[in-house]
Amino acid sequence: MRLADRVSRVKGSVTLAMTTRAAELRAAGVDVINMSVGEPDFPTPAHIVEAAQQAIADGYTRYTPGAGLPQLRQAGATMLARDNGMEATAEQVIISNGGKHPLFNACMALFQQGDEVIIFAPYWVSFPEFVNFAHADPIVVNTDPDLNFEPLFDELEDRITPRTKGIIMNSPSNPTGGVWRREAVQQIIALARKHDLWLFADECYEALVYNGPFVSAAVIDPRYEKILTFQSCSKTYAMTGWRIGYMAGPVELVKAMSRLQGQSTSCPNSIAQMAAVAALTGDQSVVGEMKAAFDRRRKLILERLTAIPGLQCREPGGAFYVFPDVSELFGKSVDGRKLSTPEDVTEYFLTEANVVTVSGEWFGDNRSIRFSYAVSDEDIITATERITAAVARLN
Ligand code: PLP
Known about the structure:
This protein is of the alpha/beta class. The chain has helices spanning 5-8, 14-27, 46-57, 70-84, 100-110, 126-133, 153-159, 182-195, 217-220, 233-236, 251-262, 270-281, 285-306, 342-353, 377-392; strands at 33-34, 93-96, 116-121, 137-144, 150-151, 164-169, 198-202, 227-232, 245-248, 321-322, 333-334, 337-338, 355-356, 358-359, 369-372. It has two domains: 5-43 and 286-392, Aspartate Aminotransferase, domain 1 (Alpha-Beta Complex); 46-283, Aspartate Aminotransferase, domain 2. The chain is built from 15 helices and 15 strands. The strands form four sheets. It has an eight-stranded mixed beta sheet with strand order 2-9-8-7-6-3-4-5, with helices on both faces. Strand 7 (198-202), helix 9 and strand 8 form a beta-alpha-beta unit. It binds pyridoxal-5'-phosphate.
C-alpha cells in the first residue's frame, strides 16, 4: 500500500504496545504485573459518572461548539484560577479530546517545515511525534537526573537557533516523575522571552506533586503571552477513557486550534464534557484521596527498588512513575543471555519476572527504564520481589 509520507514520520505508541503485550501474556495464562501503563488504576469517581448519566437523560447528546461547551471552557478557567491562581477567561480555553489532542493541535497550528522545537530528554514519547507530524524538527536537550531532571541550561542555550520556534516542557514529568524547581521554570521562561519562543507547559500531572506546592509556568510570568498551559482530566480524575483535556492560551491561537479541531473531530464528546464539568467544579476531595494512595505507593516502590543492587533510583517528586537507572546491569548475563541495553532489561524483567516496564530508549534515554506505580500495593510488593530474584540470578 502506498501511504502518505507523514505516516512514516510518526512512530506508534510504545506504551500502548506494551499494554497489548501484557494483555496477550495474561490471556495465555501468565500472571503478569503490568507496570507500563500511564493511567490511574482507580475507577472514575461516582459523582462524575452520575453527571454523565444525567447528561444523557438531559439530552446532551448532540454536537457542541467545536472548542467545547461554554460551561466547560468556563470550568477549565475556574479550575486554573482555583488551583493555580491563574487568570484566564473561558475564551482563552479550548476543550479537546484528551490532553494529547490540544498539544497536537497547538503544534499543528504553530509549527511547520523549517521550524525547530526543543524538547527535553527523557521526554514523553508523543512530544517528538507531534513536532514531526507538523513537519518541524524536534531538538532534544538533555536534563540533569540529579536535579529533578531539570534542563542542562548551557546545552539548551547552545541549541537555540533562529529556527527555534518553541519549547515543550512537562513538569511533573512523564517518564521521570521529576518536578522542576521554580527557579528552573523561571529560567526557561526568561529564555523563551529572550528568543520570542512559544513555551508549552504540559501540566497534566499537576495534581500529583508530593513534596511541596505546584507552580504553574503561566502563573510565574502571567504577562508572557506565549506560555500555553495544557491540562487533562485523565490523570487528575481517573478519566483516561473519557478523552477530555484542555489548553489555556491566547484567544487567537484558541480560535486557530478550534478551526483545526472543527474540521477533524468536530467537537469533543458531549457527554464526557458534562462529566468533565462535574469533575472540575465538583468535590475535589477525590483528587486528594487518589494522590494520597499514589504517594504511599511511591514511597513503597522507591524503598523496594532502591534495595535492588544495580538499580539506581532517584526520588520522583510527582506523577506516578519511577525511572531507575539500570546501566549497572549492563554486561551481566544469565544462561548465555547478556543484558546490554534498557530494552534488554525490560525484556528480561518481562520474561523472567513477568513484570512489564518500558525501556527508556523510547523516551530518549539509554540507561533507564520506567515503572508506573499506578498499580496496587500488593502488585508493587510482588513485582519488586520477582525483580529482586531475577536480578540475583544475573552474574
Ligand atoms: N501529557 C503527558 C506528559 C502524558 O503523560 C499524557 C498521557 O500519558 C498526556 C499528556 C495526555 O493524556 P490524555 O490524552 O490521556 O489526557
